[in-house]
Automatic annotation (TrEMBL):
It comes from the Bacteria. This is Outer membrane usher protein. InterPro entries: Fimb_usher, FimD_plug_dom, TAT_signal.
Amino acid sequence: MRLNSHPTKGARTRAYRRWLLAGCLVAAAAPVAALAEPIPYLALAQEPTATPSNGPASADALRRLNPTGRDVNLTVPLKDGDFYLGDMPLTISADGQLSMPSERLLGLLAPVLDAASVAALRSAFNGRALVGPEAVTHAQLQMTYDPKALELRINIPAELKAVRSLQVTPMDHVGLGSFTPPAGFSGYLNVRGSVDYVEQGVDNGLGDPTFLLDSAIRLSGLVLENEAVWQPGGRNDYQRLGTRVVYDDLKHTARWTFGDLQATSRGFQSAPDVAGISVFRSYSVLAPQTIARPRGRESFTLARPSDVSVILNNQLTRRLHLDPGRYNVRDFPFAQGSNDVRLVVEDDTGRREVLQFNVFFDRAQLDPGLSEFGAYAGVKAPLLADGPDYTQNFTFSGFYRRGITDRVTLGVNGQGDEDTVMAGFEGLFGLPVGTLGVDFALSHIDGFGSGYATTVTLQRLFQFAGGRADALNLSFESRSREFGPVGTFIPDNRYAYELGVGYSHAFSDAIYASFDGRYSHGRDNFADSSSYRAGMGYRLTSNLALTANLMYDDVPGRRETTAFISLSWQFSNNSSLRAEYDGRDDRARLVYQTLHGQGVGSYNAYGEVSRSPTDAAFNGSLNYIANRAELGLSHFTAFDGPDNGRTSLRVGTSLGFADGAVSVGRPIYDSFAIVEGHKSLKGADVTVNPTPFGYTANTGALGTALETNLSAYAERTITVDAPNAPAGYDLGSGSFRMFPPYRSGYRLVVGSDYSITAIGRLLDGDGQPLALIAGGATEVAKPGQPPVVLFTNRTGRFGASGLRPGRWRIEMGTTPPTVYFLDVPASAEGFVKAGDLKPSASGG
């Protein structure tokens, strides 16, 4: 099936190779069965003589290689041992000679050979378009052709190979193939509304509705964003929250913003309300497929074919079979915490070698040479009742972090306005005992003076076999009396220092325990405070778990010991019941949760009843996912006293447009796609992302569907189906592959004019079936389009899918090519019977 007018060139090429290979296998199976040994290319290039099997091939062997009496064109795999290098076009002449394109051969061998060998090959080819097998001997190589397996084999000694980078896990995103392009002009408006009904109280009755509005418009890479609150009937019925223009420079992994900024802070920084300009880099935001954290690196050389096992924290993460050569292993899938990495190398003789190294890793660390930063400059713009208040007071905030080594990440930060200046330093150090984090900052506030603040943390994760792990966290924080970031009116640092500790331990898969505590030393007349908690969890059965916590709090005005106990029963895959007791307010609760379905028509429900010595209450909610909206209903009622209750209704929907298409759907969170059926579908409903458990959207009465859950810079494939499409309709591949930019929209058309399948039979010039031949059909009106691949069976019958009304030129892979013409009637739908087609006399 095809979605667009034609399948992609890569897909057609792969299909062409498969069918051509299948046809040649059938045709050549009997003649080549007698060839028990591969034929050396070097031998085939020489004068055919009767020789031993390891010497030059005999004339009979050459004739057996190609018994058809005409040149045969194949596409076969080229392999270095068992390692697949790529597909190679191969011509076997009528007398058994072999030739191949020199540029293709050089392109496949260059990545695996060292520079000297590549230069020797290039010199031997001497600019010729086609080369014989003798050319590779200039680089001390030998190639063979296996007619049984229909593959080329080349033996490359380890000393001639280039150093190869072996990616143990696919951690960096590599965009292979093509993606559907986004719309040139797109946008959306989200509307999330709520209204409350209060049963009793000062504001009893139906309240004023409130609507949260957010929108985005994208044009030529620029995105205009806006957020606002609209409350009809309120004192300030409209409040604009922020407006900005965003541009993502992916080449330099940077986001530029102009307008109401959304500042990001590090260390002791605040996040001030600023209107101005900013530049920001975060790999998790702008390149989520890129692993920016440190990675493992080890180099080794294999003299013989070997199996390499990568073992991380006693867990086998991958097993590879590698040919001889030099390798650089990278991208170990490090877990947070202590990592024990081993490479176990075992060659084909049974010799074993173990490479071992240890590293402590934290997810905030950066790979050496990578950096993240943010810089925000402009005027203060505090949010008031009707929107941001743009002052004349300049402010700045920024940070910069960089990976220095695998174990060291350093950073600086600073911010300031007319009253306050602050500068800070941060460092992350991977030590044998864990990850040490240090933050230090100095500040000066007019009228209060200078101050300092520091935080030191130590984190250690102990990995054990079976996936269990213990975690240790230690922290120390101190702030001087006068310290404060931007936005501090009066410094209020009540504690001179604070100490924290936390540890968790898994006794087994069913039992764990944890402890954490915090002590704060008060300054001046402010009292010390401390809190401690000990907890334990026990999984009684596969669906029944018990947790218990004992807590001690000694804070100003309160000193008490309390307990919290919870018993959870997962009585189905989607529903659970939980009973709990909270000693802090002497309250018991019974909570029920359930989730049913996926996508459109799914819902989740929550219900809670609670009881304390002073009151009883019920709290419940129901949320439903519709095709065009998200709906929610919640209710709260308190008993045993003055009865009061509140019922809330929530609705979330969106309106999106992309290149002229418009649709209504659920709220959009980043990027989206509008899906519509082609006119040839005659109004058949199109379902988006169908699964046995549901679907995410369908076109319905509006004729368009809105897929709202696309994330920026994360590869996504949307699948579609049209169960009620006309009989025989070729829908296409049934999917769209996308790599959405920020706040982008797509217009996806399902189906096309190219939805007709033609069946018939091809005859040769003598009226005999053209058997087991592959070819392609090209639309005469659009000769530049990739051909539709087709092939014939033993009786000459063929099937060609993806045609549309008009004249088609069919060219079959004979020598010379055989040409046919097929006329698809304008009234054709579904299947067309072409009957017997004879070769065109003109061939054009």
